[in-house]
Amino acid sequence: MLTYPQIDPVALSLGPLQIHWYGLMYLVGIGGAWWLASRRLPRAFPDWSRETLSDLVFWVALGVIAGGRLGYVLFYDLGSYIDDPSLVLQIWKGGMSFHGGLVGVLLAVWWFSRKHDTGFFRLMDFIAPLVPIGLGAGRIGNFINAELWGKASDVPWAMVFPTDPAQLARHPSQLYQFALEGVALFCILWFYSRKPRPTMTVCGLFAVCYGAFRFFVEFFREPDAHIGYLAFGWLTMGQLLCIPMILLGAAFMWWGYRKGDAKHETVS
Asked: Does residue 258 sit in helix, strand or coil?
């Protein structure tokens, strides 16, 4: 068994102001995505200015935060937030839904694509390889917060998390998700998008791979205590939300290759 590294969730305290590692991970994700997007911009959208890119990153980040929080409220813990609506604003305590954030991003990109007369799926193909940076950073934030831990296990790398009332050795499922949703997904999309691909296929591949990775890791992750399993003694809310994502991603890839219109290279 490994020892969980005791990391204070508060990275810096300035009087009454506290800066949490979880919030800093969002800055890392957004900053890393902006940096990579700026490198890819000349090939993907040569007529765009850096200001246009900055606007895109701002609206996508807003979609991630607003959609992620509202998605968590609606999908995972609506009752608690009805009892105390002020909890909605306390994002430093965690409680963000990837699937809600995805909906927020889709709405932001749809609005941005209409404003700048750019194809929606072309823009989504540009954004998709950037997303794993934020996903990976977010999972590190979950690990530091000692939240979303895994099921009890006797594997050599199991850990006892300080927030676990039972104090059982558990799978560090946050790190599994960091490795798959962050590192592996980034590498897959990076190499796939280096060559011209039909429109819709990059974002389609993202949906398929993320959905499959998340579905798999959920078998090692402790389900939310107030939700538990939804069916069959193993199906979680996360897995249920991944099923339509995988199907849609596969449909996008099939349709993209059926149309066969190659897109521009997007990675320098």
From this structure: helix
